[in-house]
Amino acid sequence: MSATSSSQGVQLGMPQLPAPDYPAEVRARLDADAKEVIARYPDSRSALLPLLHLVQAEEGHVTRTGVRFCAEQLGLTTAEVTAVSTFYTMYRRRPSGDYQVGVCTNTLCAVLGGDAIFDALKEHLGVGNEETTPDGKVTLEHIECNAACDFAPVVMVNWEFFDNQTVESAKRLVDDLRAGRTVAPTRGAPLCTYQETARILAGFPDERPGAVEATGGAGHASLAGLRLARGESGPARVGPPRGGVPQQDTPQHHDEQPPQRHPSSHDAPQKTSDSDPDFPAGPIAEEGEG
Questions:
Q1: Cis preceding linkage at 153, omega within 30
Q2: How far apart are CA 66 and CA 69, in angstroms?
Q3: Dist CA 196 CA 207 (whole Å)
């Protein structure tokens, strides 16, 4: 039975096999790039992830042609390559915009405004999740975590940080992107297109002037534990102890030494609910309790 029923003109949706190859000049360039990528790994199969970024850099998403290319380079089946490319969300399955705008909607960002930002951008851009504006400039998506909770709510554009966003600042951001105006991330390298970003993720150098030197570190809250572990001075406590006031607010005599406690001991789990009646960890009668 053919893929098309001529009597009714109904397409059954069966793909044309095999996938078409790249044009000769594109294939020659990608062959050279792939050889460089594969040489980095003792097991060629380990090169699959960067090769998927490489083909995504060529067309803006992972196409059937890109899957075929990766499979041929690594001696895999197209099913094996497809299984990987559809597992990781950084690999796009359909054409995307020049700028991938991801709004964190995980817990902390959400309660601080991430949900409101995402809803506002959907309305402002007229697109839904993982959809692209008609001009091909912006693809909007919600993401689970940007690993930048101390800057919440956070928006990322092509994996560069835009911290401490509001509904209005996020709207200005996407308007600037669509208008072609220069937009500077809060920290990190200058913005480039999604396809350029994909090539960098494939492991090729970012040759833009100043891009490598640009950097951005974690915020104060993220580094508090590291500073304490190193013995560096800092706030004695990150929050008040249970049932009391912060240590620095407690009146003391000049000759009285403050109690020495671990900076976060007040947040430690209680052994039983009976041991902390003001803040029980669970029902009074827990399993194993008398």
A1: yes
A2: 5
A3: 11
Q: How many C-beta atoms lie closer than 10 Å to residue 238's C-beta?
A: 15
Mean pLDDT of 258-278: 44
Cα separation, 189 vs 156, whole angstroms: 12
- pLDDT top residue among 7 and 21: 21
- Decide if 47 contacts 74 (C-beta within 8 A): yes
Give residues with Cβ within 8 angstroms of 94, minimum separation 6.
Answer: 61
Q: How far apart are CA 59 and CA 200, in angstroms?
A: 15
- Of 88, 87, 85, 114, the residue nearest 101 (C-alpha): 114
Contacts of residue 172, Cβ cutoff 8 Å, sequence gap at least 6: none
Q: Using one digit for the tens of pLDDT, what is the confidence trace for 222-242?
A: 788 888 888 886 554 545 555
Q: List the structure tokens of 146.
A: 């940007």
CA distance from start to end of the chain: 72
Q: Tokens standing for 123?
A: 């309305």
Report DSSP letters for 113-169, one per residue: IIHHHHHHHHHHHT--TTEE-TTS-EEEEEES--S-GGG-S-EEETTEEE-S--HHH
Looking at residue 187, the DSSP 8-state letter turns out to be B
